[in-house]
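ok new one. same drill as before - structure tokens go in, u give me an amino acid for every spot. 547 of them this time. try not to just spam alanines like last time pls lmao
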């Protein structure tokens, strides 16, 4: 029974084996070259145990080219090879005739000044130095090659990027106990390590593999989640089964799992984006730092809760203490049976309030608490504008007598009359009526007339405003003194003209009040012409003022 991943694993193992073989061949070639270089080309300084490459073996003249020097650790394989090469060279030097004189391999090129042996030796030492991380420094010729020419300073070497097998890839198996094998696994960095020992499905009890059990295929469970190795014994014709183990996924299952992971990651990103938007929105709502911390902590917790979506989070956020404190006006509205405003409407209402207050120089009232009080009591910005106009223009910035009269009428102790005007418990129509009454009473008092609350309230209810009160009381103050004097003189005529009568004539337009004043005027005129029929006493009274 063929499976997708088994074939893939086989290919990986084959690639790993080929790579290992190539590495071994490279190592063998390198060793052969190193041995050749050490035994035929270099010379030595025995005191410092150095290998000197590029030396002229035949001519140690001062014109010989410089050569690099590398130090060989004592006791290493290279050191032993060097000793053998040194002995070989010493033996050659003791012969009467040096065969190297006629070997082209050791004859210098006139242009470069180097023999082929020197060129190859220099190349070999450069490669060896690069492999060991040592710095290659030029040496000098002949006996001047001493230990002080060796540099032990490590240098960075350029390493070509190598694509290593992925971590966890099984490179090969090595033998374990009888019937078992040990997987050699890649670490992803070019190294490898041994895995746990496992049964070898290809194990043959008779040892030759021809008549014992041989692995055939894997047998899978119905759900394909478990598998076991199936082997056949050619000699006995029997099948053998290994233990059940977790089965690697099929390509279809693997693709499905990857698709699921991608979908989950996409959903998480979408959720993260949604929560980031919520957090940014919360920051724009004007929360304090402590309130914002509670909200952000809650958002971060919600991000890890797969059962909590963005919409559900918003609903739960609105139940937090910090959220309720920020939108306290909505809590008051709910308590009063009003619908709560959504966040955007709430903020727009706050902005409108803020602009009204600032335009009238009342920045001290631009607070979340003041806004919540107004919103909770369903005070529109139009009504707020009227209240502010009432408090600022008709009381605070008007005649101080009006404000004094208002305090006297209604026993107002608030030091800030604006705060009194803004109090939602005081409904706007009543505030306007009280202010008008104070204006009427203050005007009457300015003209020396009676300014009691009942009189002011009556005239206010009749529709008298401040301008009318000023005009009317100026006329009343001019003619009332003479009219009351005449009314006292002509009591027998039954004509009574008081402040109330004058207010009825002036503000209410009562004809009876006007006739009473005109009758008194006629009586006064008649008293001077002798046509009134009254006693002479009237003529002896002083007259003054208009009527």
């Amino acid at each position: 029974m063929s499976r997708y991943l088994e074939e893939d694993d086989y290919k990986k193992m084959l690639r790993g084996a080929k790579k290992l073989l190539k590495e071994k061949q490279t190592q063998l070639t390198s060793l052969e070259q190193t041995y050749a270089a050490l035994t035929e080309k270099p010379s030595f300084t025995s005191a410092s145990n150095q290998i000197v490459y590029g030396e002229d073996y035949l001519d140690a003249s001062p014109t010989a080219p410089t050569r690099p020097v590398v130090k060989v650790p004592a006791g290493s394989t290279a050191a032993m090879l060097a000793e053998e090469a040194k002995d070989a060279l010493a033996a050659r030097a003791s012969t009467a005739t040096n065969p190297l004189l006629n070997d082209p391999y050791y004859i210098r090129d006139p242009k470069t000044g180097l023999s082929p042996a020197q060129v190859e030796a220099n190349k070999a030492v450069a490669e060896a130095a690069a492999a060991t991380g040592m710095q290659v420094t030029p040496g000098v010729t002949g006996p001047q090659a001493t230990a002080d020419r060796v540099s032990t300073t490590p240098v960075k070497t350029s390493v070509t990027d190598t694509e290593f097998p992925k971590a966890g890839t099984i490179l090969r198996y090595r033998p374990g106990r009888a019937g078992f094998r040990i997987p050699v696994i890649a670490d992803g960095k070019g190294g490898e390590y041994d895995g746990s020992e496992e049964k070898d499905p290809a194990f043959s009890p008779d040892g030759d593999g021809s008549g014992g059990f041989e692995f055939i295929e894997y047998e899978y469970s119905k759900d394909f989640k478990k598998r076991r190795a199936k082997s056949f014994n050619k000699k006995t014709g029997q099948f053998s089964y290994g233990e059940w183990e977790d089965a690697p996924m099929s390509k279809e299952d693997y693709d499905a799992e990857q698709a699921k992971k991608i979908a989950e990651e996409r959903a998480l990103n979408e959720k993260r984006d949604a929560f980031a938007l919520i957090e940014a929105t919360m920051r724009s709502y004007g929360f304090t730092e402590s309130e914002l911390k509670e909200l952000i902590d809650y958002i971060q917790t919600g991000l890890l809760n797969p059962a909590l979506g963005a919409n559900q989070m918003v609903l739960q956020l609105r139940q937090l203490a910090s959220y309720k404190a920020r939108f306290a006006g909505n809590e008051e509205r709910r308590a009063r049976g009003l619908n709560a405003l959504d966040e955007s409407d709430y903020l727009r209402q706050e902005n409108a309030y803020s602009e009204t207050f600032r335009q009238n120089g009342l920045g001290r009232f631009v607070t979340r608490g003041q806004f919540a009080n107004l919103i909770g009591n369903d005070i529109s910005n139009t009504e707020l504008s009227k209240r502010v106009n009432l408090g600022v223009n008709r009381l605070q910035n008007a005649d101080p007598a009006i404000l004094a009269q208002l305090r006297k009428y209604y026993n107002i102790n608030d030091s800030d009359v604006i705060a009194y005007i803004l109090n939602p418990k005081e409904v706007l129509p009543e505030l306007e009526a009280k202010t008008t009454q104070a204006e009427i009473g203050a005007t009457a008092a300015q003209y020396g007339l009676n300014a009691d609350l009942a009189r002011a309230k009556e005239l206010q209810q009749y529709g008298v405003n401040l301008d009318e009160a000023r005009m009317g009381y100026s006329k009343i103050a001019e003619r009332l003194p003479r009219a009351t004097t005449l009314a006292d003189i002509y009591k027998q005529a039954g004509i009574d003209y008081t402040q109330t009568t004058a207010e009825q004539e002036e503000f209410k337009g009562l004809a009876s009040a006007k006739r009473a004043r005109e009758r008194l005027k006629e009586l006064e005129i008649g008293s001077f012409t002798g046509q009134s029929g009254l006693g002479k006493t009237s003529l002896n009274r002083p007259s003054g003022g208009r009527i």
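Confidence is low (pLDDT under 50) at residues 1-5, 38-72, 139-160, 533-544. and btw The longest helix spans residues 4-40.
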